[in-house]
# Entry
Amino acid sequence: NNETIQCIGCGATLQNQDSQKSGYLPASAYAKIEKAIENDEEVEVYCQRCFKLRHYNEIMPVQENADDFLRLLNHLLETDALVLNVIDLFDFQGSMISSLPRFVGDTPIIMIGNKIDLFPKNTNLRKVKDWVRQQANKWGIYPEEILLTSGKKQKNVDELIDLIKKKQQNRDIYVVGSTNVGKSTLINSIIKTLSGVEDLITTSRFPGTTLDKIEIPLDDGTSLIDTPGIIQKDQIAHILSPKDLKLIAPQKPIKPKVYQLNPGQTLFLSGLGRFDYVDGPGKQSFVVYASDDLYIHRTKTENADAFYDKHVGELLAPPQTEQLEQLKPLKGLSYHTKEKSDLLFGGLGWITVNDDVQVKTFSPGALGLGIRRAII
Ligand code: GDP
# Structure
């Protein structure tokens, strides 16, 4: 048949002709997918590049920069548009599309910090917003407005719609975000509020489920354009299995867990994070904000390297043993806090520490690590 098949990762049209161009799949894999689609079987259709990205954390260069997504973004420069940039508050670094600043020019941006429903009730939302703005600026994005939302729990969706109406001024709206930030869920939620239609766009827990570009006509003649979620290799989500992904990503508001540590003690956040209390004024409380299902292990820092080597993939899992090869080794960053601070572990959560303590945080390749003023 003549229907084109799109990669659910990057939205490129699949082809088996040119391995240097976007959407390439080897002929054998391509044939399999065609057959499965004929038989109405469910398949995960990824181009080779996105597949490798998901499974081997490898970036394959694409010769042309005619990547559908980049073309779409390029289009922004020529159109009078309003951009909604959706980011996952749990994984700011993993959410950022690094090429976005190049494409937005003077296009106004509303930044949406999504999944706010996972934050504890006593979160200081103003501090969260300040942090989001700081991070955005660091990436070269200067949003006109920042809104904290939950598409899933319908938080601030009405406010978002009001804000869009106020800012839109007859422009088309481009919703951009990397995969898994909750973009589809949020758009569904917007549409539901606007029109009462449920689940227009398929959502799922797995990265890369938005198909190509989806254009939703609005009453006033403008459109809401859902761009394909771009796969961000800095998201740990692309290495872990869906099951583990579900395990590490909190599914309900996170509850604090307090650990009393002495200098020279270490916490492992499964095998994906490590926190050392290096030095400070004696015994301290450290408050871990992460999924209830995430295994946390306390040990002496002097034994931590050996402990990790021995137990990663088993006691310290995820990652699973077979994923270790694709995962960068743990890399650490040192901090000396000047105020009560949150030490961030992208995709996992954070650990709140008092001021004037020296700590070191680790993650695979130091991805997603950071610090912010405590928000609670
Ligand atoms: P997309 O790839 O950006 O379109 O993301 P999806 O809408 O498919 O959602 C990705 C994952 O995040 C799914 O597991 C969703 O259930 C979850 N998710 C989406 N929105 C929210 C939200 O507002 N809060 C929470 N806690 N999870 C969300």
User: Anything to note?
Assistant: The pocket of guanosine-5'-diphosphate is lined by residues 114-115, 117-118, 150-152, 177, 179-185, 203-205, 207, 209-210, 229 (CB under 6 Å).
